[in-house]
Amino acid sequence: MSGWATAAAVASAAVGVAGAMSSGKAAKDMAATEAELARRQAKRDKQIGAMQASQSREESKRTEATQRALLNERGGDAGTGSALLVQEELAEEGEFNARLIENNAAALASSSQAQAVLAQARGRNAARASTFRAGSALLSGASAVAKINTPKPPPKAGID
């Protein structure tokens, strides 16, 4: 009877070890996928920010051109005095807005990159934890086999 019990205990330990290692690998693979998605999102955030900043600069240039055209249409001199100061202010504000967009995109990208780093760490931790679970399953199996194969002491004779 102990042969079957030993085999069952060994099989149970083997299944426990395999299950722990498999779940750890799956968690690590999932974390690696999350990290890759976060890296891609960071790249996309940067691209979107650059595109939006470019659009903002173009919008500012159109506004400046419209302002100059209106001023010239009314007979004003866009190259001197208050008109020149207003145009300079408008250009500075346009550039400020474009840089603000770039900065916000960089912050989003940084956040996505941090998520990638965290996902990788979760994957490494899951792999380590699965190794410990596998070791625990192995030790539990060895303990069960030892219990099964330890001879039972004979019953004590009663004192009459």
What layout of secondary structure does this protein have?
Elements: H1 2-73, H2 81-149
Helix pairs in contact: 1-2
**Overall SS class:** mainly alpha
Strand content: under 5%
How many E-type strands? 0
Q: Poorly predicted ranges (pLDDT <50, ≥5 residues)?
A: none
Termini separation: 34 Å
State the domain count.
1
Shape: rod-shaped
Helix content: over 70%
Task: Describe this structure in a few short sentences.
The chain is built from 2 helices and no strands. It has helices at 2-73, 81-149.
Describe the fold and architecture.
By secondary structure, this protein is mainly α. The chain contains two helices and no strands. The two termini are 34 Å apart.
Structural descriptors:
single chain, 160 residues, mainly alpha, 2 helices, 88% helix, rod-shaped
